[in-house]
Amino acid sequence: ISPLFPFQKKKEIWKKSLCKLQKEAKVIMINPVLRRELKTKMRTWKAPTLLVIYLAILAVFGGLILSINELESYTGGFDPGNALTIYFLLAGCQLGLIIILVPALTSGTISGERERQTLDLLLITKLSPFSIIIGKLMASISQIILLILASMPVFSIIFLFGGVSASNILLLFFFFIATAVMVGSIGIFCSTFFRKTTTATVVSYLLILILSIGTLVGLALLNQYAYIVRQQGLTYGESLLIAGANPFVGFLSVIQNQAGYNIVSDILGVRNNISKIPFQPWQVNMIFDAIITCIMIFFSVIRIRPVMRRRK
Fold this sequence. Notes:
The chain is an all-alpha fold. It contains 14 helices and no strands. The chain has helices at residues 5-27, 32-42, 46-73, 80-106, 109-115, 119-123, 129-150, 152-155, 166-193, 197-230, 236-243, 247-259, 263-268, 281-311. Helix 4 packs parallel to helix 9, helix 7 packs antiparallel against helix 9 (166-193) and helix 9 packs antiparallel against helix 12.
């Protein structure tokens, strides 16, 4: 027996384990489009610059908490309600930044490939249209998730004053991610439908504006029409069907329990909840987000699939 036999045996064991790991890696292989997009986007200066600017804007609002604390300390004590107000403004600022940034990141994913004349190369690969769309969407949303997670230290300042638990912040961040995915799917759809990135960006912002403001305008008009026809406003269920798609209504529903106000309840008319609907507006909004996301992804896949059929 060779004196190197123990080492050779260990070498064979290592080879077998490496082969096993390689087989498992092939099974759980990451989406190739997602892997490529992450490598190309994270290597440039745009990703860290966007992160710094995003956190700087939030830090300015977070710094107001400390400034209010210093001012109140000279006038007889600090009111924790002021800290909660700044927290709600900070959360609203983050929601606004998400709605503004996500279309800019997603509306040029497919149209940008078309403008660079690389879409044909992507379509002739073995990747399915669904994998291409999901990879592009996940690559764009991953940047937003990174921004949301990076903002946790700013939101943790509120723990110094109390009034908000960790579960409240986690629920708020989960709502932010769901909203970002919904808005990103709209941007992906516009990117597949229009050939120019500028046109896709403008249309995606218009669609988001309809969801944000158009639903409230429609709710007010239908409420007045209901008063004229049946001498009674819309019921709670009817209001949820209209305003449930509004991301800002869902946001107010998430934080109203923490604030102690009934802003959304007064808007939707909870007193007219004849059917005793147990759902809160933020829950309905997340259901709408899931439905809109599935519809946008479905039409985006169909939009790029005929190109492959014609080429075949």
